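::Amino acid chain::
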Amino acid sequence: MKHRKILWTVIGLGLVAAVVVTIVLIAGIGLKTIDNEYLYTLKGEWEGTKDFSEGLAAVKKDGKWGFIDTEGNVVIEPQYDGANSFSEGLAAVQSGGKWGYIDKTGNLVIGFTLQSTVAFSEGLAIYGSGYYYGYIDTTGKILFIEEVGDSLD
């Protein structure tokens, strides 16, 4: 009896994996191996893509980045020069050579003032701007600042 339960669990996990694979293929993003190599490459309207994070994936069309959901619907129109994945509800996007952060509806939460950024983790992100780097919180408040020898520009 115990072996039968394990078998059904394995079959069930296989069906869940098949559904996830189908959703990803429909969205046109592609599947990656552990080594980050694509098993399936995107085709169609997107010039570039990034992995899904928090239900959205960055996609590139006509040289600009936007975001789609897991069904392939455009949630945030391609309009940015660069984009990173969502983390803690925010994604870093680039416009005019500077980085800022948007929320999942596309509202600009932290303005385009940063020279470099990384994803938020535990409410903080590292940023760089001019001769300085430091930490900001999800509202854009600077919590720590350090001067560097050379400009980050």
In short: Residues 21 and 91 are 24 Å apart (CA to CA). The first strand starts at residue 31 and ends at 32. Residues 1-27 have pLDDT under 50 and may be disordered. The chain is about 15% helix and 40% strand.
